[in-house]
Amino acid sequence: MLVTIVILPSMKPLTNLPNRQIHLDFHTGPAIPDVGADFDPDVFGDMLVDAHVNSVTLFAKCHHGHLYYNTKRPERHPSLKPGLDLLGEQLEACRKRGIRAPIYISMQCDEYAANLRPDWICLNPDGTRVGRKPLANDAFQWQILDMSSPYADFLAEQIEEVVRLYKPVDEIFLDMCWDQPSVSNWAKAGMLRAGLDPLIEADRTQYARQVVHGYMDRYNKLIARINGSAAPVWYNSRPKINLPEEVKYLQHIEIEALPTGGWGYTYFPLNVRFARTFGLPCIGMTARFHKSWSDFGGIKPHAALKYECAQMLAHGTGCSVGDQLHPRGTFDKAAMKLIGDVYAHVQACEPFCIDAKPVTEIAVIRNLQGEYHPKPGSAVEGVVRLLQQTFHQFDFVAPQADLANYRLAIVPDDMPLTPDLLKRLSAFVKRGGKVILTGAATIAAAGKLAKPWTGVATSQPPKNQVVFLSYNADVATAQDTEQVLYEPTNKLTPAAGASGFGRIVEPYFDRTWEHFSGHNQTAARYPTRTFAAVVGKHGAAFGFDLFRQYATHGNQHLRALLSAVLGELLPDPLICSSAPTHTEISVTRQSKPNRTIVHVLSYAPQRRTPTLDLVEEPTPLVDAEICLRLPQKPAKATLQPAGKPFAFTYTDGYASFTLTSTAGHDMVVFEK
Predict the structure, then answer these.
(1) What angle do CA 100, 102, 108 make, to 5 degrees?
(2) Helices (H), 276-332
(3) Looking at the structure, do residues 525 and 471 belong to the same domain, yes or no?
(4) What would the pLDDT profile of 47-84 be if each residue is shown by its tens digit?
(5) 6 lies in a domain?
(6) How far, in Å, CA of 29 to CA of 558, rounded?
(7) Which of 569, 585, 607 is a domain's end point?
(8) 273 within 8 A of 385, measured Cβ to Cβ
(9) Cβ distance 269 to 380 under 8 Å?
């Protein structure tokens, strides 16, 4: 399901996004003496073709502030081979082979400009510089330029020259575009002109956002004017929660998400489920590095890269893999072989992925206040884990999104239940939708209006720091015992006709300095007549922060509790399965031809170092039973990309099959 967004006439969605892209990093310092010395355009182009690449992002300007094309500007890399138009020859090699070639330009990171004009550097409120300090050499630290200073004009001249030299350009990729508050003279003057107070943090933050939107509008118009048409421009490093107000500047969306580079394996599935609801084509981006960008000599396992690209296909996006060119202008052969092997699989999958749209039935309302990287143990992380592990098909949506095509809406722990959202949810329920509220604050905000949905008669504030939950047979848990809830919960009483789940059992007492028993929480002792969750006719309520607590503590019984509640509200889910919980199952649909595709991914990232989750091999699936709800019996099913007929049964509106596989990524394709 895609939420309809009005796109401005000059910003039409792209229709030719690639499925097999390389983002080719080339941040090369001025001390490197032989830049481009071994570059051969034919070797370069042929290696891209051999690796099944159909798009590659090429560098015009790097974070060091140097340019890699023939220009009279002094920023040209001082060691770039004389007479070598590196960017131009790369572009020509790509165009000869039909390979799309976006052009990369660094924005707020520019060492050359920072050293040339220190007054263009962003300043913290205490007067210190933002970013790398004068004598620091920490990884990923750069001097940060102030986009409210004349640097914005300096950058505009660079962008204009690049587009003039190489038009028509396929895309301009502008990097390092986050909101950057500053108290430079330029920023302070701009804030005063805007009626903002530099002494107030909120005003500094507001002005930083205004600056970004100002240059997005400016550079879009500049590029379109010179290029002769509105070339797509991507502003990287912006939080996806900004999309509702920034989609008007975009023709497509890219999701940078290097799992081992700080993003983790939850970041992409979280953000793609949000980004894809804005009606624009999306590209996912990982990298071939063992760790993160500029990891020379670091190559990840084949299984990891295949998993990450398969995730992108399963969510309806194109694939982009980060790589880097050696300073001398050559590819790493092992890295290109890795990318080529994975992209051979991606290419084989493409007939079943191009123009395939995700099919979902649950909308999770996303809090648009947050950071680029959600903190570990956050509610949104818990949503991804719980709903993926229970195989439900869901999107994250903005609070103002249209819910008409969803069956169920979830308001998770961290989402403020504003009067406007409450009104929208009320209308959704009247149209037959169902709602789940989680968290004591959410339930309190819902007040009397939501009680008919959720079936909550009364909600009492927590009495204990820790309680235990006792389940009946309708909650399938592995243990027949009171199971701990490590944090407080409101005590809910069901109204007539509603059902309680997770009966609350209180401990002897809370642990204090005066009286405690054992190492941790005191044992369970007092059963109550209240519950942690209540299910009514039109929805359900959880008296605690279900998703945050699951992300923080990983209690298996919380997944069983949610499954039981969802079983009451969605007794006929789109997917049901007995597969292990590490399995990821996604459903997409193509209209021409009429196909429904079930992507099954079986990989289990393991924490192999204090900071890295790694994948070294796929996890075999054995006799995994999967059922897909379809309105009528399919004419046939095939296992792709193997191209083999696949056995299934059709009963009570479900196409059911059993999958045993060691491939890691399979697609079961049903056709009418």
Answers:
(1) 170
(2) 302-314
(3) yes
(4) 999 999 999 999 999 999 999 999 999 999 999 989 99
(5) no
(6) 51
(7) 569
(8) no
(9) no
